[in-house]
């Protein structure tokens, strides 16, 4: 069963010289419980594709179906609901909220799901423990190293147990030991909780954790 499918998905920006294509004719099927790695040089459209699949960005042509819902024809509110309850996103640039502590940043997705406070606190404690950042829980993002901020971003993406995890260079700011640990966490979530994972990576080693690798070049999937 497909968790998502795109047909002829295309995205462009208009410039003085005409259209510049960011994504072109993307035909992609990803099954429930699959672990997929996306590779390609800088500027090939990897992050743009992830943002479109995560419903953080729109597209100009084609169709996108997510869990049986036609994303291309949904109203904004419906798209937002689908994202909120089903998708976790790990950003390359962290996107932590500066005014919130580590624990509060991690808790944020659960606030949108109207989970009871006791359950939220227990889930946050579990994540702090899993990523060895219990001692950082009352610190603010500016007080953390880049690697620590990345771990907080990963914990935040996973706390709501999304059906689909989208990860943009998830180990880019981590040392090799932390990076291997994160890939082990992904593998466990994929195998034991049937979480579908799509990761963008420059690392051949990390890409190999996936069931298959998709190569992008100039916004197109390479056959």
Write the layout of secondary structure elements.
Blueprint: E1 2-15, E2 18-31, E3 35-39, H1 46-53, E4 61-66, E5 69-70, H2 76-86, E6 87-90, H3 102-111, H4 117-130, H5 146-158, E7 164-168, H6 176-192, E8 196-200, H7 204-207, E9 212-217, E10 220-221
Parallel strand pairs: 3-8, 3-9, 6-7, 7-8
Antiparallel strand pairs: 1-2, 1-4, 4-5, 9-10
Helix pairs in contact: 3-4, 3-5
Summarize the structure in words.
- There is one protein chain.
- The chain is α/β, with parallel strands linked by helices.
- It has one domain (2-221): 3-Layer(aba) Sandwich (Rossmann fold), CATH 3.40.50.
- It has 7 helices and 10 strands.
- It has helices at residues 46-53, 76-86, 102-111, 117-130, 146-158, 176-192, 204-207; strands at 2-15, 18-31, 35-39, 61-66, 69-70, 87-90, 164-168, 196-200, 212-217, 220-221.
- The strands form 2 sheets. It has a 6-stranded mixed sheet with strand order 6-7-8-3-9-10, with helices on both faces. A 4-stranded antiparallel sheet has the order 2-1-4-5, covered by helices on one side.
- Helix 3 (102-111) crosses helix 4 and helix 3 (102-111) runs parallel beside helix 5 (146-158).
- The longest helix is centred in the last third of the chain and has 17 residues, at 176-192.
- The radius of gyration is 17 Å and the shape is globular.
- 37% of the residues are buried.
- The mean pLDDT is 94.
């Amino acid at each position: 069963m497909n968790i998502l499918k795109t047909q002829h998905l295309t995205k462009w920006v208009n410039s003085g010289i005409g259209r510049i294509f960011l994504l072109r004719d993307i035909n992609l099927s990803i099954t429930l419980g699959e672990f997929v790695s996306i590779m390609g040089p800088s500027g090939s459209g990897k992050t743009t594709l992830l943002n479109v699949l995560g419903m953080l960005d729109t597209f100009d042509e084609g169709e996108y179906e997510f869990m049986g819902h036609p994303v291309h024809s949904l109203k904004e509110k419906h798209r937002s609901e689908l994202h909120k309850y089903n998708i976790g996103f790990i950003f390359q640039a962290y996107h932590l909220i500066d005014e919130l502590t580590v624990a509060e940043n991690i808790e944020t997705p659960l606030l949108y799901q109207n989970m009871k406070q006791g359950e939220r606190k227990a889930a946050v404690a579990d994540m702090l423990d899993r990523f060895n950042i219990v001692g950082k829980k009352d610190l603010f993002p500016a007080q953390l190293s880049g690697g620590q901020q990345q771990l907080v971003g990963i914990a935040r993406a996973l706390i709501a147990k999304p059906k689909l995890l989208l990860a943009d260079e998830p180990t880019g700011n981590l040392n090799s030991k932390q990076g291997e640990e994160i890939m082990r966490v992904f593998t466990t979530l994929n195998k034991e909780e049937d979480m579908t994972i799509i990761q963008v990576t420059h690392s051949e080693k990390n890409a190999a954790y996936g069931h298959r690798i998709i190569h992008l070049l100039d916004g197109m999937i390479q056959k």
